[in-house]
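Subject: sequence -> structure tokens, single chain

Hey, anyone have a minute? Need the predicted structure for the following. Not urgent.
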Amino acid sequence: MIRRKIRQCLAFWKPKQKREKDGPGAYRLFLLDLDETYGQEEADSYGVEPVLYLLRDPAGQAEQIAIRALHTFHDKENDVPIGDLFESGLKENRIPFEQIYTFQIPFGERSGKYLEDHISQVYL
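Reply:
Had a minute. Here:
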């Protein structure tokens, strides 16, 4: 299911890339995991589920955007969820992205690193 979604996203972006002047860049998988931000959950609950993005980020800005989103989230004046802040940051930096999967894995099973090393992961 994830592979099919990735292929669909790549097919959608391909015509758009031809119009862009800065070239296609590289596609990356990027996991945004918020388990460290929100309170510890019971092992069998789902809490805020991690989200997998497909994005084109040749400069590697996504990690910094995620960290800025975390700092903004903790601002006393803020009432916007971290995921929305992250996506807004991607848009502001003109980084094409697609939310391709939400992991429905219980909190206890996703403690620690649970994806392979080639997938960029930020644990906030």
